[in-house]
Amino acid sequence: MPHHPKLSSRINLRRLIVLVAFASAILALANTFYASYRVQRQLLIDSTLEANQAYAHKLAGSTEDFLQATRQQLAYSAGLLARRFGDVAGLTAEAGRLRAQTNSFNSVLVVNAKGMVLAASPETLAVQNTQLASSGALQALRERRPLISQPYLSSAGILVILISHPIFAPDGSYLGYVGGSIYLKQQNILSSLLGQHYYRDGSYLYVVDQRRRLLYHPDPGRLGATAGANVVIDAIVRGESGAGPSVNTLGVDMLAGYAVLPSTGWGIVAQRPTLATLAPLNQLMRDTLWHSLPIALLSLPLIWWLARLISRPLVQLAEGASRMDTPGMTERIGSIGVWYLEAAQIKRALLLGMSLLQKKIGKLNSDVQTDPLTGLANRRGLSAALEAWQAHARPFSVIAIDIDHFKQVNDRHGHAVGDAVILRLAQLMRAGSRDADVLCRNGGDEFIMLLPDASLDVALQVAERLRARVAEAHIPGAGTVTVSLGVVSSSEQDGDSASILLGADAALYVAKERGRNCVGVKEQLAHH
Known about the structure:
This protein is of the alpha+beta class and about 525 residues long.
């Protein structure tokens, strides 16, 4: 790796520790601020939504109580009017009493079954003896039941809501109705109930009906208008009460609570701007940050001193690691003073590094020379053992082993059973061998046993014993199998290790020629 003098001179462990510590402090502070802000923000939003919903439910309950009270008043008046329906003066007096007694209505009308106004209060309406053709009047005449109409334009061009009750004669015949009107664009009972709840921070209330028309709004110009797309109004139209964020017609994010009146389906919405809700929190976070900065700046010298204290043993250990090939470096590393766990662990790792490395290399060599399925030596392990023995002129015998008809086992029973056969053979080879013997899987169903310091007769005995044990063994899925074995001794075979292995293969061929499940030696080939 090329050396970068500028980089190494500008960046060292001490500066990195200072940088990491300072960055960690900044990140921790930022994370604390962010987490605190998010939690407080959500708490404010949730509490505002909950408060607005509770407030909307309270006002919905008050409005529902008002509507029920007006219905009761109209029902009582309808009972009185039924007994004197022909007395125009009495009808006019009752209309005046009904309007003045509770101030619930802007006007009161008594209408006969043909839609003719018999009495009205106030008399300045000048509608007595006139035929009504407005949608609210026609609906009351048509349905002949207590009802609250949708907003409509009266004959005088006034946007009104009609609350009416039918009048029936003692014999049950329909006489007409008595109705109280609420003028939406004038001072009315709704504005008296709801208008006092307007706040200076942008909070306000509005009332909307099932046709999305505004029945009450702090902006008089919007009364009677049809509201556009709005998640809160959509929920009200579905008959749902609840709370949630929304965006008003001016594009302002609002936190709204809403409740639906059971009798009319009207929705009362109490909402507050999100910014107004979060303004105190934003100011609090700014003040907290401003007061935290001096402490953060004063902590820098302490961080620098701690970084120097922490980095000193690590710097010394790093210098020792870079010069591990220098004589006496082990003693120098051992003399470095460490006062915390990580530095002590690094020191111990450096001192044990070479030893662990050698062990690792040895394990890698073992893995390279081992067959993964059986755990026996592979061809590399075989070659390594032969080279070592021949270098020391150590005599040995070779047993070459081949599973008889192994391809048929795989074809009939599958490779999983074939692997079980191979593993079982490896177990029997281990059971019949010494610790000094080298057991190898040469590939597929071919195995080799290397027997150091063993004569040909001894090798033949080992081979025959292994053959018999294999023939007797029962392998799940395969039943019984047999093996053919070829034996050769280095003392009776000329040449190098390759020629000795070829001699073992030739002896194995003799066993196969003899019908398998037997032990062969090379010399038997000629006799056969």
